[in-house]
Amino acid sequence: MPDVTKFSRGGLILFLSFLLMAVFSPALAPYDPWVRFEPYLPPGHEHLLGTNDMGHDILSELIFGSRVSLIVGFGAALMATLIGTAVGLLAGYFKGTTDEILMGITDIFLMIPQIPLIIVLAAFLRPSFWMVALIMGSLWWTSTARVVRSKALQVREMGFVQASRALGFSDRHIIFTDMLPNIFHVIMPKFMLSIASAMIAEASISFLGLGDPTMKGWGMMINFAFTRGGFINGYWWWYLTPGLCITLFVLSVVLLGFALEEQEEATMRLE
Amino acid sequence: MSSPLANAAPLLQIEGLSVSFETPLGRVKAAQDVCFDLREGETLALVGETGCGKSVVASAIMKLLPHNASVQGRAVFAGRDLLALGEKEMARIRGSEIAIVFQNPSLALNPIMRVGEQIAEMLQVHKGVSRSRSLQMAEDMLSRLGLVKKETASMYPFQFSGGMNQRVMIATSMILSPRIIIADEPSKGLDGVLAGEVMVEMARIKDQVGASLLLITHDLLLARDISDRMAVMYCGEIVEIGKSREVFSEPLHPYTNALLSCLPERGFQPIPGSSPSMIEPPAGCKFHPRCPQKQDKCMRRPEMVQVESSGEFSGANESTGREVRCWLY
Amino acid sequence: MLAVLKAEEVGKAYESGLIFKKRHIALRGITLEMVEGKTLGLMGVSGSGKTTLGMMLAGLEKPSSGRVLFAGEDIWRLRGREFLAFRRQVQMVFQDPEGSLNPRKSIERSIHEVLGLLKIPQREWLKRTGEILEMVGLPEELLCRYPAQISGGQCQRVALGRVLLLHPRVIILDEPTSALDISVQAQILNLLKDLQQELGLAYLLISHQPEVIRFMAHETIVLERGGIS
Questions:
Q1: Number of H helices, E strands in chain A
Q2: β-bridge partners, B45
Q3: Which pTM value belongs to this model?
């Protein structure tokens, strides 16, 4: 049994580092990522990760790039989770007609091919990355909804929910104080994983060239590296580093989700 | 003329077993100075209310307690102190020589393995029996426990009711013919009639394999019907031991008496007060705050004393093995 | 003697299947009366529909046929405030004591939320909590604990206390002691009896143990395969 606390502590540190990186980008980055220097410089004293084809400092790009990735990641995940939780809770608690309608809507959304739709929308609308986050959020809530619904159905049958109904509490009170806290531990890991999915999706879109070129996210960096001769010339400091960042961030998110689950189980073993 | 039971050497001797847990709420003294013998071929019931420490005693003997437990004392089995053995030795003894049947059968069984295979696995792993032969033996054991249909062995636990799963657990534990079987609340979750049937079957098989049974239960009537001797526990201590029928007809300890009065057939008379905390137990005799016969002496902890029984269940010269922890004696 | 809660030809059927609907009749033609200050015992093997009947009498499930009358009125015809008033007066205590308390709410919070529901001003909460704890025989130190940290008997008392705060006239007790040790069972049964005498409560006592029914019930009904035998 691997040492969970080490993993979760590692995940937390990693996560916080990226968070700090995004928040304090101007302070941390050595240069403004839009200032041009000599292009195609390899890593050296002045530019730790060299420069890209336009002469922008890659390290600064990397640091500022975290903002895009994190915002898209969080934004999409938050929206998806909020919508999904609301739908799942209401469907699971009220059952009957409400459940049928909500699940019907969920099924419709599930039929929509998500990544292709995002790609198509991105290709035609050329949206900013805020839009991308929004679109993802409005499509991804379905899996959360299903998971929340099944847990809600379970919790609803539990003794204390029946007892609350018998005592005459309003549905609103029961949903917020009885059901939600007991479903939370299912929502959190899904939220964390959604952040990871959203980031990877954003990176993929950018890599395909459909992202927002004005804000250079990590995916966009890889795209430029690919199209502007980074791969061919073997400039690993250009294409490898953004990929590494994506990987590490996703890893940290997954570890955090894992840690939250462990903590949940520990709390349930109160005695 | 002494009965064979009285002279049989004890198979398991528990001496001064004390268990405590460190918890955020304080130090829980789950068991204090527990001493009893389990003789060959007998059924000893360890009875008491929920939380009195009886399950802890069983887990302590099998060295299955969590890390924050500290255990003192000895558990001598076949000349060796179990509590001093290493994990590897214990793993060998568990299952093959001392088996334990737990409370929640549905949770203890592997959900993705067929029932017959789970039982057969015991034989394959511990005794190296061939697959076909072990499956056959598993089927035999199941039919002896009342699950006679041929297809039963190839079904999965989720297809069974709680009662059937309990019987599968019992089969798993008895298939290796262990010398001691520890059953922790085996009748919990089973309704009255079924519980009785399962226990009778278990007792029969136990006699056939010649094992001893340590029965842990809060069900007094079950203990009376199945066990030869009974040990009553309260707040981590054994307060009375003796032949089951004698303890029932002539309870010596005030707690035993009060507990028996709670039985429906005696009118549901409640014991005044509430169970004491195991973190800050009462000084001296643990029961004295609730005892109708308490004296000043009771602030000091009484020792276990032997009592001569005048009942009709004992012969003239034989020791009845009746012991009580009370200043009244 | 006033009949406070009545069931008239109450039945419950479950339907399954989309096209070829299968009807499973759990209960049929149940007629019974509950009287103030008296206990009606309800017996039957597991699966005979006892709990379902209890839930229908408490208004937690709707019967497929027949009526449930409280103080002469069909409860499913009551609207809004009247239904709420009915809910308060007919309460239910469930079988699994630990299950009837939210594991994430401390005992204090579980009790306070009922006081909040009754719109009792916060400054009175301390006093009322103390009173109800005394009534069900619980020490104050339990307030900061969580359901997992207290015993089954204590959980049952907390559940009972919450119910009593509503000043009900009828309490439906679904196997209130079957999950408890005999000593706790004796205590709870005696407590219930005392409360009945003190407050004039009507009980529907559901149990599979004949001794419990004998001890508490003034009249008994036996359910067999969905009907009264």
A1: 11, 0
A2: B215, B230
A3: 0.78
B54 vs B71: CA distance, rounded Å: 14
Residue C136: inside a domain, yes or no? Answer: no
Q: ipTM of this complex > 0.90? A: no
Query: Which CATH number does the domain housing residue C73 bear?
Result: 3.40.50.300
**What DSSP assignment string belongs to C103-169?**
TTS-HHHHHHHHHHHTT--GGGHHHHHHHHHHHHT--GGGGGS-GGGS-HHHHHHHHHHHHHHT--S
Indicate whether C143 belongs to any domain: no
Write A6-13 long-range contacts (CB < 8 A, 24+).
A7/A255, A7/A258, A7/A259, A8/A255, A8/A256, A8/A258, A8/A259, A8/A262, A10/A252, A10/A255, A11/A251, A11/A252, A11/A253, A11/A254, A11/A255, A11/A256, A11/A258, A11/A259, A12/A252, A12/A255, A12/A256, A12/A259
CA distance B16 to B14: 7
**Overall fold of domain B4-86+229-324:** Rossmann fold (3.40.50)
Interface residues from chain C to B (CB-CB < 8 Å): 46, 137, 139, 149, 151-152, 181-187, 189-190, 208-209, 211-212, 214-215
Burial class (CB in 10 A: 0-12, 13-18, 19+), B227: buried
Q: Which residue of A has its CA nearest to C85?
A: A168
Q: In chain A, which among 180-199 make CB contacts under 8 A with chain C? A: 181-182
Task: Give the phi and the psi of residue C165 in degrees, each rounded to 5.
Answer: -60, -25
Number of domains forming the structure of chain C: 1
pLDDT tens for C115-161 read: 999 999 999 999 999 999 988 888 888 888 888 888 888 899 999 99
Among the partner residues B192, B265, B271, nearest to C183 by beta-carbon distance: B271
Q: What is the pairing mode between strands B180-184 and B98-101? A: parallel
Dihedral pair phi/psi, residue A22, rounded to 5° = -70, -45
How big is chain C by its Cα radius of gyration, in Å?
18
Which residues from chain C sit within 8 angstroms of residue A169, using beta carbons? 113, 117
Domain boundaries in chain B? 4-86+229-324
Which is it for strands B180-184 and B80-81: parallel, antiparallel or unpaired?
unpaired
Q: Residue B281: CA atoms inside 13 Å, Cβ hemisphere, count?
A: 23
**Confidence at B2, pLDDT banded by 50, 70, 90:** very low
Q: Which chain C residues are Cβ-neighbours of B271 within 8 angstroms?
A: 183, 186-187
Measured from the Cβ of residue C156, the count of other Cβ atoms closer than 10 Å reads: 28
Query: Which domains are present in chain A?
Result: 4-268 (1.10.3720.10)
Residue B6's pLDDT band (boundaries 50, 70, 90)?
very low
Rounded distance, CA C69 to CA C89, Å? 13
pLDDT digits (tens, 9 = 90+) for B158-169: 888 777 788 888
